[in-house]
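Changelog note: in this version the structure field was regenerated for every chain. One regenerated record is shown below for reference.
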Amino acid sequence: MTDATRAPAPAAIPRHAWLALVALLLGMFIALLDTTIVNVALPTIRTSLDASESTLSWIISGYALAFGLTLIPAGRIGDRIGHKWVYFTGVLLFTLASLACGVATSDVQLVIFRVVQGLAGGIFVPAVTAFIQLLFPGRARGKAFAIMGAVIGVSSALGPIIGGLIIQAFGDENGWRLVFFVNLPFGVITLIAAAVLLPKRDESVPRPDKGLDWFGLVLVSAAFVALLVPLIQGQDEGWPAWTYVTIAAGLVLLAAFGAWEVAYTKRGRTPLVPPKLFSHPSFTGGVVLALVYFAAFTSIFFTISLLWQSGLGHSALASGAVAIPFAVGSIISSSQSNKLAQRLGRNVLVLGTALVAVGLGSMWVLLLTVDAADLTNWILLVPLLVAGLGNGFFIAPNVQFIVATVDPQDAGSASAVISAIQRIGSAVGIAIIGSVLFGSLPTGRELATAAGRATGFTDASAAAMGVSAAFAVAAFLLVFALPRRVSHGRPPASAGRDGQGGHAPDGQPGDAGRDDPAAAPASTTQA
């Protein structure tokens, strides 16, 4: 082969791009760590602040909902003014909100500051995938996303363990506060790294010339808040009439949002959620799949943390240790999921959701049949490992398969919608599971003794886990709405507009996946 015919060697990636990736992954680390570390602190927060049962649900749901609703507008704003300072602002706000959470003196304050944390996370996380799209071409982009996936897996796995260790070392009163303070040094380091290492906006890239659909954002935010408030507060207040009225109002607001998006599009504007995406029935099924799956799996550690600590009287560290098999399983299977997706196509998602359904179903049966006094982490080890393996097989490739149901030019919009729906699914799942768990708890004398408390929480956790298992079975059935295989010509989840993938240098959707079909982001969906 002559020099003229030899394929050109791939361009070397500049050192500053890899340094910028470090700054980005630091932010991703704290966002994901905070998602899981708080679960083990819930029982101590309940005791320390005399928090209500609904407050515990709000601490998790409020964060997830705010995170999801901010993703799309934050990405669009980054496209307009540059992702560097959007990222910096989001991390700064997240760090300050973490400080505020740690010094909160009431449950209401804590919920408010957690919502601000979620808003901040939704502001800066889209910039991570946008920068990777811009800084890394071809196969290097796949490597960068693989590194990001590993960081996501490790930070999610470390959260419960770190939280348990902190509470064990510093006690209940101060330990839960330090769970939030742990973000402060990481936040400061990330801010310095972002200011120094992230490039400014390339002014040669055209700015988007259409504004943001603010009214649509208000409508959809109001709709989901109207649905979540009664789901979380209803059990606490005995399901008064206003809870049913508010749920009905939320459904009306969702319908109004859909009508507004159609009208907004007809005026030639760029909607928050393009209605044409839902002209593909498979995409609609995929969106429901994302909502249902994340409702299923993100709620299980909410249940386990409360059972292990409030019910069985174990330490926060012991509660965190229960999650280890799930984390190990997720890390193992996610490392192989891209290869399996190429070989098995959609069947990798069938396998993943089946394993999650089997794992959660087994946990439900065990909680129903095993006496509370005999429950140990060893009994739940195999079901959690099985569910973790399934989670790893599902999380990595699921966005690719859902995005593959729409036209290639709509890949960026579809990816942004799916990422937001996943967070909203987490919020909805916690709201429903929390209502079931606390609604199933006995009251009065039955919880007065250690044995009664253990039995009561075990029975209530069985009811909650049964709902999680039902969600998992529904997710398994919904997988069959997706295409059997992802076309290699389609941009994957990282490519595109709307903040989830950023713009390529020419202002068009990026080329990840055209250079390397396996270059899709491995686990952007867990943030």
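Spot check on this record: DSSP finds 17 helices and no strands in the chain. The chain has a mean pLDDT of 82.
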